[in-house]
Each structure stands twice: as C-alpha cells, then as structure tokens.
Design a protein that fits this description.
By secondary structure, the chain is of the alpha+beta class. 61% of the residues lie in helices and 9% in strands. It is globular. The two termini are 20 Å apart. 34% of the residues are buried.
Amino acid sequence: MISFYTWTTPNGRKVAILLEELGLAYETISVNLGRNEQFTPGFLAISPNNKIPAIVDHGAEGGPLSVFESGAILTYLAERHGRFLPAAGAARYKTLEWLNWQMGGLGPMLGQLGYFEKFAQEKSASASARFLAEADRLLSVMDKRLAESRYLAGDEYSIADIAAYPWAVTASTFLAEVLAERIGTKPALLRWMELVGSRPAVQRGMR
C-alpha cells in the first residue's frame, strides 16, 4: 500500500496518473493547500519542502519509505516497478532529459504565469509579458519535439509524458484566456494531448 499525499494541482496529478498506470494499491490523503495543511508538522515530516505531492511506500525494502518532489516520485515508482522508464541506455537518459525539462521549465513557468494572470492582487505587465513569452517558447519547444517524435522521449510513452501532460492541460484550460490561441498553432502538441488524454489511466489520474 502507498499513502499518496496530494491536492488538485498538475504536480499532484502527475503521480496520480502513474499510480493508475501501474495499477498500484494506494490511499489518497488530501492536503488542502487553501487551508495551509501543507504546513502541518505531520506533513512536514514527509515533505520537508511543504509541497505536494509526496508518498509513503509502506512496502519498500527496509521499511516504509517517504519520497517528496514529483520528479523523484515518478522516477522511484517507475524504477521500482520496471515501467515507463528504460533501465539503461540512451532511451533512459532521453526520458530523464524531458522529465527534467518539465520539472525545471514548463511547470515553473506556467505556474508563474498563472500567479500573475490569476492570483496576483497587484498586476505587473512586465511580469505577465515575461512569463507569457517563456510559456509560449516552452510550448513551442514541446511542439517541435512532438513533430518528430510520437512521445516526448521517443516512440514509447514514459514518465516524461506523464509529467508534462497535466501542465499542458492546465495551459489549455486554466490558462486558456492567455494561451489557447497560441496552443492552437501547435498541431503536434495537440495531437500528443489527444493521444495521452485518451488513456484510461490518465483519465482516472486526472480525476
């Protein structure tokens, strides 16, 4: 059994998708960010950065193991269960390359764009312009890659796709007011979103 600490964010949905893809037994424990539950001592003991998602794998070798940060969780679960991350060779590093691209680029930039467009009480035209331009650049990088490759890391679906998909959905829904027109000019990205979004486990994880 895995205890899965999460909330309704793209980073939380990444792990939900992989848990569903792997068919693992897990319990979902909500960490309500609106009520600052991420700052409770119990959650801090599992996730020192006070961020979701986090897991505790009660069946880990040597006893229960807690893992925080979505990229680390995806890597851990994929390696432990031998799926969605090649064990060695070029395909492994291509997967990790695009996983880290999402972790360091797509997610943070869309998150900042969302803050300045949706939540900031004091609007900043320069901040909005900066993060809009960077979000569009990253989505263009993604579109270019997917024009030459079925999935982000190559021919096979991987944790790189699982990591990027919830953020792409966020870009096309929550941030549609500023990004929908730009996404509409990226056919390879749209093709990939439809392909990944048609997977039953992805649909369950997104819910």
